[in-house]
Amino acid sequence: FGIADDENFVITTTNRKEITEDNFSELVQDGITLYLLQSVDQMLLSATKERIDFLPHYDTLVKSGMYEYYASEGQNPLPFALAELIDNSLSATARNTGIRSIQIKLLFDESQGKSAVAVIDNGRGMTSRQLNNWAVYRLSKFTRQGDFESDHSGYVRPLPVPRSLNSDISYFGVGGKQAVFFVGQSARMISKPAESQDVHELVLSKEDF
């Protein structure tokens, strides 16, 4: 790497966790991406790209929330799918100390690409590991095992109140991935952890699957 004898450097994960002798076996696994930096908080000189390989659960693509949504007693199932996506933003912004902002945008201008539904919030953001774990079907946001880092770590379920923007509005609990593929063919998640300068992006598509 051309490192001078008198030069200091650190090796970190994409979550900016420094690799040490004590945590090496815990953090370093096959296929993991590592950064060689001058300091843990060093600005990246260019974007990095990592391909994530995993076997998606067949329900994510085959059912895509169909059973749960169409079992909604004849009601329009689309609002339930949107509720799943908004529910993620409610969780992310639950501990905001300032303004809590959640925007839903319906984009139909195909000159900018295909039509899309965008849910934007000012929540605490997710690390690259949390984004990767979001992609794994049937991995509950309340119970994560092993090396899985929850995308809702520290989440506190709100007190029981009528369904509103202060409560869990997710009705069927089938998950964001099924909701995404019920609405469209691909998902793009862009997130910046509140305490980090890094912006992480995850792309999932039925075509890739």
Order of helices and strands: EHEHHHEEHHEE
Number of domains: 2
Count of DSSP helices? 6
Which class of the largest domain in CATH terms?
Alpha Beta
Task: Give a structural overview.
The radius of gyration is 19 Å and the shape is globular. Helix 4 crosses helix 6. The protein is α+β, with helices and mostly antiparallel strands. It has a two-stranded antiparallel ribbon with strand order 1-2. The chain has a two-stranded antiparallel sheet with strand order 3-4. The relative contact order is 0.17. The chain has 6 helices and 6 strands, in the order E-H-E-H-H-H-E-E-H-H-E-E. One of its GO terms (biological process) is double-strand break repair. This is SMHD1 protein. It holds the Pfam family HATPase_c_3.
Protein traits:
209 residues; alpha+beta; Heat Shock Protein 90; 2 domains; two-stranded antiparallel ribbon; two-stranded antiparallel sheet; 6 helices; globular; HATPase_C_sf; SMCHD1; SMHD1 protein
Task: Please give the structural blueprint.
Layout (H helix, E strand, L loop, with lengths): L9 E4 L10 H4 L6 E4 L20 H5 L3 H5 L7 H15 L9 E6 L8 E6 L6 H7 L41 H8 L2 E6 L8 E6 L4
Helix pairs in contact: 4-6
Summarize the structure.
With 209 residues, this protein is an alpha+beta fold. It contains 6 helices and 6 strands; from the N terminus they run βαβαααββααββ. The chain has 2 domains: 1-54, no CATH class; 58-147 and 165-205, Heat Shock Protein 90.
